[in-house]
């Protein structure tokens, strides 16, 4: 049994190049990433909250992790060979945009299905894909620690196996929820353990249909590049279908005084400043607490509502029904629900679901210089020449040095640059569904109306069939599938998505003419030598 670190191998099996071996300790912590196309290992920059991540594991537990991972991968069996029939002149079978947890899980799922020539791209620097090391600002994940993740049914690739092996059997039990940077380290390790190559510093700029194929304009390492693919998965995250939501009353503010929680931002620059936070969701509270921890003089958080909604122990009631948010591993079942139920679930989720973890609230409230303003919508916002922001709030004029918009994300395909050529052809909920009177919702109507394997559908009855080759695995899929797509529960095994891609490539690869020639070809019996001696005269 060997405990050598894994070599990287390319999910695009035709272009695989040997990758450098990594430093063993870094490998176990996932702190080093091999970079496709660069042929280099890059150490991750570590943020100020480093203490919340894994401490360096002991060498013996790191070796134990390597041994058990390799044994379980051996027992799972080698990845099947790429069976997809090559289509001449096409670069990739599948391109996955996004090397975060969703992109990594889907790439691994496709590989285990025998789908080769899969390329994962990410605009981020190596090791910075996803949100966990940049714009997520909470000490621990918001979701329960026991949810399955990207391990595709192989428990030895799951968070628990990784964490317990490195930290001792009782360490997982002692966790409240998963520490954010430990989750980031785990995902890096998962990428290494599954040998998934991500082509970093590569941004999708534009999708152009060419018949049923997709021509992708990329910016790769600063240079323009064009590739073609048969299938495209948009695993580009919460901001991937419209971007950060900046309410109209904040849009006139200059960037120097306005930051959305979706932006990477150096919070140390807020030391000594008066900060206004607009919005009362989880990210708003996390930003407020981070500003206070970095020495902000005062932080004021403003909510339009009369209360802060957080998970309470109150049982569901007719006034506050339990919402079926979809279930881990069975997103496809939520897709089967009638449109009316999916629509109403969405409205309930938007309006009633408790979202801010209690500890996020407590983290901010613990500071004496944190002020919470309820029933406090903003108006008349402006920035003066001396750099102060002025706003009318509940009849008073207030002044801030900096404003943070914790106002979430919007779904608006027309705002997504890479969809510029095609968004008008994509069917939206407002095209396919007429809500009951009183249940209209303009923002919900903007969500794409997706098919069962996350495919876009054409808006018109005829044409734009190429849209069925684009699988939208981002926040925009939430209305069609019930839970925020991209959340940990949604990155588990996605059988219908993987199988549909495999089926489409498989069926397309069958050439009836070749098949017919094969069937009609005369049978040539093999050499009878192995049994000749026993053949009886007839
Ligand atoms: C602040 C915050 C906290 C969250 N906390 C939790 C939590 O605790 N639990 C939970 O279950 N969910 C949480 N979520 C929701 C969700 O799980 C995360 O957003 C998660 O990171 C989604 O993973 P993903 O891989 O789908 O997308 P992301 O992690 O966002 O990764 C998308 C990747 O796509 C890349 N990309 C985007 N556009 C392009 C392009 N044009 N070209 C190339 N690359 C591109 C980005 O660089 C990024 O690396 C949180 C979300 C946010 C925003």
Number of helices: 16
Distance between the termini: 54 Å
**Cofactors, ions and other ligands in the entry:** flavin-adenine dinucleotide
Identify the overall geometry: globular
Strand count = 16
Overall helicity: 25-40%
Unreliable segments of 5+ consecutive residues? 1-53
**What is the makeup of the main sheet?**
6 strands, mixed
**Measured on Cα atoms, how large is the radius of gyration?**
26 Å
Query: What oligomerization state is this entry in?
Result: single chain
Structural class designation? alpha/beta
Strand residue content? 15-25%
Average pLDDT: 87
Describe the fold and architecture.
The structure is a single chain. By secondary structure, this protein is an alpha/beta fold. It has helices at about 25-30, 60-75, 100-110, 160-165, 170-175, 180-195, 280-295, 330-335, 340-350, 360-365, 430, 440-445, 480, 495-510, 510-520, 530, and strands spanning about 30-35, 40-45, 90-95, 120, 200-210, 215-220, 225-235, 260, 275-280, 300, 370-375, 380-385, 390-395, 395-400, 400-405, 470. The strands form four sheets. Strands 3, 4, 5, 6, 7 and 16 form a six-stranded mixed beta sheet that branches. Helix 7 links the parallel strand 9 and strand 10. Helix 2 runs antiparallel to helix 4 (about 160-165) and helix 7 (about 280-295) packs parallel to helix 10 (about 360-365). The termini are far apart. The model is unreliable at about 1-55 (pLDDT under 50). Flavin-adenine dinucleotide binds next to helix 3 and strand 5.
């Amino acid at each position: 049994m060997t405990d050598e670190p894994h070599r990287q191998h390319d999910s695009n099996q035709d272009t695989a190049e040997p990758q450098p071996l990594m430093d063993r300790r870094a490998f176990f912590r996932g702190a080093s990433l091999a970079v496709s196309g660069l042929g280099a290992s890059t150490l991750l920059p570590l943020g100020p909250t480093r203490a919340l991540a894994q401490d360096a594991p002991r060498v013996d537990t790191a070796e134990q992790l390597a041994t058990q991972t390799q044994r379980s991968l051996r027992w799972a069996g080698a990845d099947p060979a790429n069976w997809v029939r090559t289509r001449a002149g096409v670069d990739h079978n599948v391109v996955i945009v996004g090397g975060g947890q969703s992109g990594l899980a889907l790439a691994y799922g496709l590989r285990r299905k025998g789908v080769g020539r899969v390329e994962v791209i990410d605009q981020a620097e190596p090791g910075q894909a996803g949100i966990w090391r940049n714009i997520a600002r909470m000490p621990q994940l918001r979701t329960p620690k026991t949810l399955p993740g990207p391990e595709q049914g192989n428990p030895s690739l799951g968070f628990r196996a990784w964490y317990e092996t490195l930290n001792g059997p009782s360490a997982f039990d002692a966790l409240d929820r998963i520490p954010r940077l430990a989750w980031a380290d785990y995902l890096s390790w998962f990428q290494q353990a599954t040998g998934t190559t991500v082509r970093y510093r590569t941004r999708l700029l534009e999708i152009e249909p060419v018949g049923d194929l997709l021509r992708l304009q990329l910016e790769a390492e600063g240079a323009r590049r064009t590739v073609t693919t048969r299938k495209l998965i948009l695993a580009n995250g919460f901001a991937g279908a419209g971007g950060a939501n900046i309410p109209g009353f904040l849009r006139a503010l200059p960037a120097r005084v306005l930051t959305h929680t979706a932006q990477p931002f150096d919070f140390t620059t807020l030391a000594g400043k008066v900060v206004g936070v607009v919005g009362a969701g989880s990210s708003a509270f996390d930003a407020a607490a981070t500003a206070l921890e970095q020495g902000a003089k005062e932080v004021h958080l403003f909510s339009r509502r009369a209360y802060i909604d957080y998970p309470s122990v109150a049982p569901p009631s007719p006034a506050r029904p339990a919402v079926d948010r979809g279930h881990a591993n069975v997103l496809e079942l939520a897709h089967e629900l009638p449109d009316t139920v999916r629509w109403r679930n969405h409205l309930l989720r938007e309006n009633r679901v408790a979202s801010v973890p209690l500890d996020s609230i407590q983290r901010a409230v613990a500071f004496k210089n944190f002020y919470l303003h309820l029933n406090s919508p903003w108006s008349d916002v402006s920035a003066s020449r001396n750099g102060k922001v002025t706003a009318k709030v509940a009849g008073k004029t207030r002044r801030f040095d900096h404003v943070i918009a914790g106002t979430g994300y919007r779904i608006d395909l027309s705002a997504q640059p890479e969809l510029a050529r095609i968004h008008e052809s994509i069917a939206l909920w407002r095209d396919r569904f007429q809500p009951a009177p009183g249940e209209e919702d303009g923002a919900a109507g903007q969500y794409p109306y997706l098919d069962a394997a996350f495919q876009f559908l054409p808006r018109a009855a005829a044409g734009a069939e190429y849209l069925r080759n684009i699988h939208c695995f981002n926040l925009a899929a939430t209305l069609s599938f019930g839970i925020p797509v991209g959340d940990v529960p949604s990155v588990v095994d996605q059988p219908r998505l993987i199988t549909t891609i495999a089926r489409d490539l498989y069926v397309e690869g069958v050439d009836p003419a070749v098949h017919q020639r094969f069937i009609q070809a005369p049978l040539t019996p093999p050499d009878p030598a192995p049994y000749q001696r026993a053949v009886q005269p007839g």
